[in-house]
Amino acid sequence: METHLDHFGRVVIPKNIRGHLGLQAGAAIDIIEFNQQIILKPVGKKAPVVKKDGLLIFRGTALGDITGTLWAHRSDRIANIAGDHSF
Asked: In three state form, how does the secondary structure of the chain look?
């Protein structure tokens, strides 16, 4: 996605990207220059998924029925395992 600098050196982050990242007016952003690139990184934002002791841990906010989803996924996995090991 292309955008342009104004005469003060400002750039507008498109609305859909701001919404996806939860950025609002006044949000703090780190600006990093790396390998001829400019990287913008929201300050204080943590990745919603981290790896800990070999497991992926979700530490974000659930946007739906996470308990129901987990039980449905668990039931599917049990059915698949039982099907693969039938006696």
From this structure: CCCCCCCCCCCCCCHHHHHHHCCCCCCCEEEEEECCEEEEEECCCCCCEEEECCEEEECCCCCCCHHHHHHHHHHHHHHHHHHHCCC
